Amino acid sequence: MSGPVWRFEKCEGCICDECLRQIDAAYVQGIVKDGEFHRTRILCEDCYRANLDVISKQQTQDH
């Protein structure tokens, strides 16, 4: 698999890229390249849910 993907992970002390809150778990967007996941965006659960329509449309356009 390659391209942008989202995954949920525990990340102690992460900062949400949208609301800037400190969080302990996040939805993390990244690129899979050469079998490794490289983070590009971190969202708390609230911001992920609030942006779900935009995220879904973006992933549809990417494929």
Give an account of the 3D structure.
The protein has 63 residues and is α+β, with helices and mostly antiparallel strands. It is built from two helices and three strands. The chain has a three-stranded antiparallel sheet with strand order 1-2-3. β2 and β3 form a beta hairpin.
How is this fold's topology laid out?
Elements (H helix, E strand, L loop, with lengths): L2 E13 L6 E12 L2 E8 L1 H6 L1 H11 L1
Antiparallel strand pairs: 1-2, 2-3
Short description, anyone?
With 63 residues, the chain is of the alpha+beta class.
Structural class: alpha+beta
**Oligomeric grouping of the chains:** single chain
Strand content: over 45%
Task: Write down the overall geometry.
Answer: flat
Number of E strands: 3
Cα-atom radius of gyration: 12 Å
Q: How far do the termini sit from each other? A: 12 Å
Features:
3-stranded antiparallel sheet, single chain, alpha+beta, 27% helix, 63 residues
